[in-house]
């Protein structure tokens, strides 16, 4: 019954159940987020999965990242989905026939041997690669894991620093609400409202075959997602083309900063020069704190590049700078106050709500509009631990216990209601199992 007192579950059983979810979702080359709803390989999912898998099989964790990075485009982007050709077309929308990545010789150097999407997701990969390496340095060195990954990770970060600096102030911009991974967060409502929706009879929402409509984005949001993706595809995935949606997100950029520090560790380990990655990390941190800090709310906020204004919202993405190494303590202290205050109720709610509990748009069950997710809780936990004060350590310990409890009780749900802890979305979700395993280690 180890651990039963603080988490209400047997840690041995939890570990075995989490391992079984990951084994069940492994398809031979990588891990699907879910057999039913997401039957391909997703970018940031695979990074979180590798962080958990390293405790079961460091080699498999390496392969997870290698397969994903194998589908990198020549311009450096890591696509948000790598499609499995063995899965029937139509099992997920938008599928390979929508993105058409390899068409006409491959847009911007998209690979010819794999079909992928053309947008990206948060760059957690270097952090995952470094943690995977450290789990078994001997196996990593034997397989040449870091020397093979380092140039790919470097190209990925350069793509984001170069092609994606759409505001010209040193931050990476997202051009689609799927890119920050927080699809229908109220954070995107205002910029998304300017997007003309695609005709609803021009596609079919396969996601609703596997989930409850009230837990998922609305049809109107979906029509706008489709429109944005279609326009980007039709531009040949040209980042310099006009974008109806352009936002600097604090979550995405914080994870990029954490990844730059991890890349510096990786470069040092392979005898390379860490200086460029460290310089980028410092420049990004300066831009994050000057451009995205909302002093009135005590949280980082997304900047809409359409209006060049901070959006008046408080989402969990605004707390993710907690995971930025070396963030000045004035910001960390203010973020801890906000996290434990009425907007997020840390310590009094289940994990960390994805959106402001007091916000007019808050919805306890609908996807990223309120429910608590396991990956953002893991990131907040990591930041609280790194902050290293008695208060943040206690908050981190409580959050860890909450993540393990909610993972167990919900059957490794995709997300949970922050008030009740009831599982929402699908069960046996890969990153939920992987990150529970990591917190158990
Ligand atoms: C679109 C796979 C992905 C996650 C995202 C999550 C959800 C996809 C969808 O599922 O997005 O990419 O179809 O809703 O929002 O964070 O990576 O698990």
Structure in words:
It is a single chain. The protein has helices spanning about 5, 10-25, 45-55, 60-70, 95-100, 125-135, 135-145, 145-160, 190-195, 220-235, 250-270, 275-290, 330-340, 375-385, 390-410, 430-440; strands at about 40, 80, 175, 245-250, 295, 300, 305, 310, 370-375, 415, 425. The radius of gyration is 20 Å and the shape is globular. Helices cover about 45% and strands about 5% of the residues. The mean pLDDT is about 95. The longest helix has 20 residues, at about 250-270. The chain has a single domain (about 5-440), classed as Glycosyltransferase (Alpha/alpha barrel), CATH 1.50.10.10. It is mainly α. (2R)-2-(alpha-D-glucopyranosyloxy)-3-hydroxypropanoic acid (9WN) binds near residues 38, 42 and 207. One of its GO terms (molecular function) is Glc3Man9GlcNAc2 oligosaccharide glucosidase activity. This is Mannosylglycerate hydrolase MGH1-like glycoside hydrolase domain-containing protein. Belongs to the glycosyl hydrolase 63 family. One of its GO terms (biological process) is oligosaccharide metabolic process.
